[in-house]
Each structure stands twice: as structure tokens, then as C-alpha cells.
Amino acid sequence: MMWTIAPEPFDSPVAAALWRAYYTEVSDRYYLLHEGRRTDPAELEREIAARTGSELAPPDGRLLIARHEGTAAGSAGVRLLDPTTAELKRVFVREELRGRGGAPRLVTAAEDAARDLGAKAMILDTRHDLVEARALYARLGYEETDPHNDDRYAEHWFRKNLN
Questions:
Q1: Are 142 and 161 in contact (CB under 8 A)?
Q2: 134-143: long-range contacts at Cβ-Cβ below 8 A with a sequence spacing of 24 or more?
């Protein structure tokens, strides 16, 4: 199999590199759409440093890393919000490896991790411009819901029962 997915410490060098790639892409997409510019490098560094991903550490979270033919290719995180609800975070596949089945595998693995943590449902939020993500979640059985948070960048909220 060309894809493997396994847990990884949130603060590993592999996780840090994927977080940087993820955040750079989604931040640049936002600023290019709304302000016609890329993310300011100083802002990028502050946000990357401020969002360590520690909420994805055991016992109440998991960070999963996908590897394609042995190379770190993507990530997905899960964190318990309460004993039966998990949140899906940081779903990302490197651009050059998209379209090869990595994202659905990551989300499915994250659902399995959420079940292992005791979750009966998975929720997530995303932005309007992340059309690929919204299509993926719909394809995998997530239903759009009313807002479940007040994140300033969240524009779409999804939920899936994990039973």
C-alpha cells in the first residue's frame, strides 16, 4: 500500500513541518481572497508558534500523520470536546499528493481514533473558500449544521455520527 497512517506526537519535527505547510496554505488562501496578498511572514511565525497542537496529544487527542511511499504527506487531528463528541482538526494533504486518496483515508483514520477515545460524533468547522474540504466532508457523510462555535474564520459547520 502506498499510504500509511499512524499517530505522531504533536511536537515532532514531522508534525511541525506539516503544520507549517497547512497553516501557510490556508492563511495565504484567506489573505489572497480577502486582501489580495499573502500572509505577512511575521504574522505567520506568530500564529505557528501560538498554535502548538497540544490539544491533539493523548489522552484526549490524537494527531495522525499520513505517509505516501514513506514520505510525510498529510495530517489529521482529533480532540475530545466532551466524553462523546470529538472535533476534527488540521486535515491536510500536501498539494503534490492530492487526488491520490490520502484525505479520505486520513479522515476515516481520524474517525476511528475518535471512536477509540469514546466519541459518538465528530464535528468540524471550515471556511467557505475551502471548497475541496467541504466537498470531502459531504462525500464522507458529514452533514452541515448550525454553528457550534464562534471562531471568526468558521463559515461552515459539519457533524457526523460515528455509530
A1: no
A2: 136/91, 136/103, 136/104, 136/107, 137/107, 139/104, 140/104, 140/107, 140/108
What does the DSSP 8-state code read for residue 162?
-
Second CATH level (architecture) for the domain 3-9+56-161: 3-Layer(aba) Sandwich (3.40)
**What is the model's pTM?**
0.93
Q: Give the torsion sign (CA, 30, 109, 2, 68).
A: positive
* CA separation, residue 160 to residues 2, 65, 111, 112, 148 (Å): 27, 22, 9, 13, 13
* Longest Cα separation, the chain: 43
| Mean pLDDT, contiguous 10-residue spans, the chain (163 residues) | 93 95 94 94 90 94 97 97 97 95 97 98 96 96 96 95 94
Are 94 and 106 contacting, i.e. CB atoms less than 8 angstroms apart?
no
The answer to whether the Cα torsion of 110, 120, 158, 57 is positive or negative is: negative
